[in-house]
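TL;DR need structure tokens for one chain.
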Amino acid sequence: MMPKKNILVLLCLFCAGLAANAQYQLDQIKKYTELVAPAKKDSLQMNLTNRIGNDIHYLYPIYQAIAWEKRFKKLLGDNAYNDYFAQFLAMAGDYQSAQTYAQKKYLPLSAAQKRDIKNYVDELDGLQSINAKSFIIGASMNAKVIMINELFHQPMHRAFVYSLLKDLYDNGFRYLAMETLTNKTGYVIDEVNIFSGEHTAEPVGGELVRKALTLGFTLVPYEDTAAGKHTPNVRDSIEAVNLYNAIKKDSTAKMLVLTGFGRNNNEALVEGQRTMAMVFKSISNINPVTIDQVAISDGSYFESGEAFYTAFTKKFVITEPSVMLLDKKPANLLGLPGISIAVVHPPANYVNNRPTWLALDGERKETPIQPSEKGLFMVQAYHEEEYREDILGQIIPADQTYIAANNGYYSLYLKPGKYKVVLRDISYRRLAVKDVTVE
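>> reply
TL;DR here they are.
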């Protein structure tokens, strides 16, 4: 058996290899923008965007962020720049770089803080783990509303929600509310495209919506349409009212709500805060089951959470999304206010430079795409039944990436079915379209 120290060394080398691969691709984009400077034609653009007219361009915000870094940091501030850049990197399938940029907002922990976290983890005892999906499905039997959070740059969180849909539907849930959905009066979301919502343009988000529609869920947009003009408390209150309005006419309604970090806390995180969950409970008299899957996962929302996760997963072997139990009750290991259930995600497992959680609860399989075209940079797989040449810029891929495996092939995760695979160069120009069938 290989000594534990050697295993850790190999793991570190493996992670370093992944990071180097992603950084190499970003370096290639940097060289491209220096030569072509595609973002300069929109030098008055006030935000990073992947929208050009009515089309989506998944590399464009990466061009912007790299070519105009100083300008956008000045406009947005460093933290917002890094957050938005991370989200667009994740949309393009570069999860390693997305996490790197999202964590740039971290404040360094002192040696004393690191020591306190390590000591706390060392003293944890009596914990048991249970499969998170099974635990949540069991809890859903007597629940009317479940609220679960996500980080927008971590599609892994959407992949976990995807895994819950079928069993929740079988338990009577008929409404799926997502903060990201387009919230326009009279607009019905019955398919996935560029108009469905901001993060439904991310491939796992798109697959989540496709799955929900196939099962028969009614999609509920609930974002405050004037969020940019409102305080966080006002925004959360309006979102809560929108959620309540969606189900109050249906006495049997059961709803799953996917929201951003902090909005589903049923108690205030800071003094004076009125979260969406708090307001929803007060106006509906429904006590939602609140699930956190952000704090104790790789790339936690905050630096102490990341330090805790690193120490925790060294002490406890986590191989699947899990709920930690203490005396047979869900343990709130970080003391998050107003959280019913805390999910601990395992460290991501990468095969051919892509995380295996992309298999979406085993429904998709890794599919290698041959790098057959000179100048190939990015591969995208579209469901054949959705594919149309004339509106390709409005269609959301099932999966995509510009991170190749070490053998040069690109691994995509796809369900059984027929696909049109688009091969693009670094300028986003189509080089070829291939027919691919997944058995």
